[in-house]
């Protein structure tokens, strides 16, 4: 009985009708003939409420509902959640569906209202975009059911405490995995890079077909088979490639809800997947005041799960990162020439100047690519109309900071260090493009 009472909720319409009847009783003080009608109306309301309760509780499992979602969500992506409501009543019902979202979203206005016909199924879905990695707890799926009388509501509870893990963007990884192997890449932002020369890894001798490079003709094999034969080369495989992520305070800056660190993590995961598909070895280094994680370069797609689990719990620190410690670790433990993709950020030339000696020392032995970020918020200030003196000051300062970024890019290139200056939203595509360019040009 207590459970039944706990699931009963009074509808707004009931209070409206009760208020009208109360006013009728009040007015009947001056017009006594209304008194009898008021009692009749109150009795009818009581009977209607009793009938409404009877219809709502006439069946035990009158409504069934379930929430379908993945066990893993992708950070920064739109993740779908599907809801299915089944009406087992023998009548049309009005439902109010409230899903208790994880506390990280701070969403208190989730509500979906819909009529569902007898023995019908209602399907709907919504998307959520998590901006923090970690564990997300979904609460109850609440379904409030009313008959067409709309006097009383019955609450049904489903899917209590569903746990979902939010990982670095798996969706983005799968998307660029496909695009990297696609024949027409330009429409997606991936560039086709003209291959210069040949790699050193010979694959096979094959018959000449139209379009093959004449410089690859194997004349001995041609004389032997009495037809044109060419040497076929393939990309050098098992080259060590490291994603190095700065987890210091400079990576705490947020853009569109995600920290720079999260953009770097998503990009490194997608890039690592592409590199592994191309049979290279992939490693990972996370550093701040100390080396947080070090995964030596390995090949094989199974290693991607290890990278994913490592990136899951990474967070930024409030300290400055120690580039001298990074240089020391690379010198001791990465002895083979490797491609190093360093995700960091510099907001002022003086910050780059402090770290430049270490970057130069690293670049002497390895192919170093420094990846840092444009401040896209400055674009809003630069494009804002200068209607007054204050806006002119703001625009001038914003243009100076934006120009400093370009100067830092040129400073790195002056010392022979490859660099990428990118918007946070374009980080993944630009990183993969740089990797494909280096592979195509045989720079490693």
Notable features of this structure?
444 residues; alpha/beta; 5-stranded antiparallel sheet; 38% helix
Q: What does this molecule look like?
A:
The protein has 444 residues and is of the alpha/beta class. Helix content is 38%, strand content 27%. It has twelve helices and 21 strands. The chain has helices at 2-6, 12-27, 34-56, 170-180, 219-225, 260-277, 303-312, 323-333, 349-365, 376-383, 389-414, 427-441; strands at residues 8-10, 63-68, 72-74, 79-87, 93-99, 112-116, 121-128, 134-138, 141-146, 152-158, 162-167, 201-207, 229-234, 240-246, 254-255, 258-259, 281-287, 291-298, 339-343, 367-373, 418-422. A hairpin with a 2-residue loop joins strand 15 (254-255) and strand 16 (258-259). The longest helix has 26 residues, at 389-414. The protein is elongated. Residues 183-188 have low confidence and may be disordered.
How does the major sheet shape up?
A: 6 strands, mixed
- What is the approximate shape? elongated
N-to-C CA distance: 75 Å
- Average pLDDT works out at 86
Low-confidence stretches: 183-188
Task: Give the structural class.
Answer: alpha/beta
Beta-strand residue fraction: 25-35%
Spatial strand arrangement across the major sheet: 18-17-14-19-20-21
| Computed CA radius of gyration, to the nearest angstrom | 33 Å
Helix content: 25-40%
How many alpha or pi helices? Answer: 12
């Amino acid at each position: 009985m207590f459970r039944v009472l706990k699931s009963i909720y009074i509808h707004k319409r009931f209070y409206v009708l009760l208020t009208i009847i109360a006013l009728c009783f009040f007015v009947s003080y001056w017009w006594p003939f209304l008194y009898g009608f008021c009692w009749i109306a109150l009795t009818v309301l009581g009977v209607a409420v009793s009938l409404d309760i009877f219809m709502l509780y006439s069946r035990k499992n009158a409504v069934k509902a379930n929430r379908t979602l993945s066990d893993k969500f992708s950070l920064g992506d739109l993740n779908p959640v599907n809801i299915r409501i089944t009406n087992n009543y023998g009548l049309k019902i009005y439902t109010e569906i409230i899903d208790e979202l994880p506390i990280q979203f701070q969403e208190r206005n989730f509500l979906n209202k819909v009529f569902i016909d007898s023995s019908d199924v209602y399907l709907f879905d919504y998307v959520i975009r998590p901006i923090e990695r970690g564990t997300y707890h979904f609460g109850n799926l609440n379904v409030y059911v009313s008959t067409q009388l709309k006097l009383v509501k019955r609450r049904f509870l489903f899917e209590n405490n569903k746990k979902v893990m939010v990982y670095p963007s798996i969706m983005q990884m799968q998307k660029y995995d496909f695009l990297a192997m696609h024949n027409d890449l330009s429409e997606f932002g991936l560039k086709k890079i003209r291959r210069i020369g040949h790699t050193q890894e010979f694959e096979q001798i094959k018959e000449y077909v139209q379009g093959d490079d004449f410089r690859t003709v194997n004349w001995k094999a041609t004389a032997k088979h009495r037809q044109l034969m060419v040497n076929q080369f393939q990309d050098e495989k098992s080259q060590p490639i490291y994603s190095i992520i700065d987890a210091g305070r400079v990576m705490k800056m947020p853009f569109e809800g995600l920290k720079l660190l999260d953009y770097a993590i998503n990009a490194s995961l997608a890039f690592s997947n592409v590199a592994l598909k191309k049979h290279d070895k992939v490693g990972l280094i996370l550093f701040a005041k100390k080396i947080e994680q070090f995964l030596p370069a390995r090949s094989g797609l199974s290693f991607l799960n290890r990278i994913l689990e490592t990136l899951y719990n990474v967070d930024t620190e409030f300290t400055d990162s120690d580039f001298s410690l990074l240089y020391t670790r690379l010198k001791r433990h990465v002895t083979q020439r490797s491609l190093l993709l360093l995700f960091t950020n510099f907001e002022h030339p003086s910050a780059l100047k402090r770290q430049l000696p270490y970057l130069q020392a690293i670049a002497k032995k390895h192919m170093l690519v420094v990846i840092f970020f444009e401040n896209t918020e400055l674009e809003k200030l630069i494009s804002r109309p200068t209607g007054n003196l204050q806006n002119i000051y703001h625009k001038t300062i914003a243009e100076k900071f934006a120009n400093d970024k370009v100067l830092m890019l040129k400073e790195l290139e002056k010392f022979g260090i490859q660099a990428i200056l990118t918007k946070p939203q374009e980080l993944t595509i630009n990183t993969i493009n740089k990797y494909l360019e280096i592979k195509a040009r045989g720079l490693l």
